[in-house]
Design goal:
Helices cover about 35% and strands about 20% of the residues. With about 270 residues, it is of the alpha/beta class. It has one domain: Aldolase class I (TIM Barrel), CATH 3.20.20. Helix 3 runs parallel beside helix 4.
Length: about 270
């Protein structure tokens, strides 16, 4: 009996060592519905908010900042653009001219990217690796709904779905949570691939219910509103916040510059 038992234990230990990386790879950050958050992409990050999540810039945020926030009990989501070229980023020269499309409306130093390009995808993998190396808990890739825009390229909705799922798969393989940014028309189809959503002005543009599938799946919707009336008129803000609470969204009223000039929360 003993000669069978001990080899069996040794065999089980070997199996556990073999499969351990697979289990670890599934252990990425999944925020709960109703998670509190702060979003700041410009200026010196205000570290004083008592929230569960900080959403900050991948390139501009130091490892020390990320570690300080985590040491205070916060999770850190790192922002980068996955659908546009930004000429000031340190990896801007990694893109080929042929993969750069039209200028983004209102953002003269950004151009749309050809999301079908293998070179573009290689850059995004490096950005995701940078997020993992810096210790981010998750990522917020922006501009992942460009199929609806005149980018200068002729890709379609299925190309966008493929690209977004590629980003999600790569993030998860690195142990990173990932949020779906501003893609209401594909939110239902992508709700199983992403761990949360980050939306802008979904109440202003009547897009909030498009994200209900994420809430039903236990995944939070982190929403930001920019209308000045929500700052100046408390009754208007309260009315919007009541809608947000009914939908179980995590809504903030912020400056569009996301520089912490002010911050109003719909937390109950």
């Amino acid at each position: 009996m003993r000669t069978v038992f001990f080899p069996f234990i040794a065999f089980c230990l070997l199996l556990s060592l073999f499969f351990a990386p697979l289990y670890a790879a599934n252990d990425w950050y999944r925020p709960p519905v109703g998670a509190t958050w702060h979003w700041q992409l410009d200026g010196e990050v205000n570290e004083s908010y008592d929230v569960a999540i900080y959403d900050i810039d991948l390139f501009d945020s130091s490892v020390e900042l990320i570690q300080r926030l985590q040491a205070s009990g916060k999770k850190v989501i790192c922002y980068f653009s996955a659908g546009s070229y930004e000429d000031w980023r340190p990896d801007a020269t990694d893109f080929s001219e042929q993969d750069l499309g039209k200028t983004l409306k209102g953002w003269d130093d950004e151009r749309w990217l050809d999301i079908r390009s293998s070179q573009v995808r290689d850059v995004m993998v490096r950005r995701l690796n940078l997020a993992a190396e810096k210790g981010c808990d998750g990522v917020e890739p922006d501009n992942v709904d460009s199929y609806r825009t005149n980018t200068g390229f002729s890709f379609r909705a299925n190309d966008q779905l493929d690209y977004n799922r590629f980003l999600a798969t790569q993030a998860h393989q690195l142990g990173l949570g990932i949020g779906l940014k501003n893609n209401p028309d594909q939110a239902r189809l992508l709700s199983s691939d992403f761990d949360f959503a980050v939306t802008e002005q979904c109440f202003e543009y009547s897009e909030c219910r498009s994200y209900s599938g994420l809430i039903q799946a236990g995944k939070p919707v982190l929403n930001a509103e920019y209308r000045r009336i929500y700052v100046d008129d408390e009754s208007e803000r309260n009315s919007m916040c009541k809608q947000s609470q009914r939908l179980a969204f995590s809504t903030l009223v912020l400056p569009k510059t996301l520089d912490d000039q002010f911050r109003l929360s719909c937390e109950p």
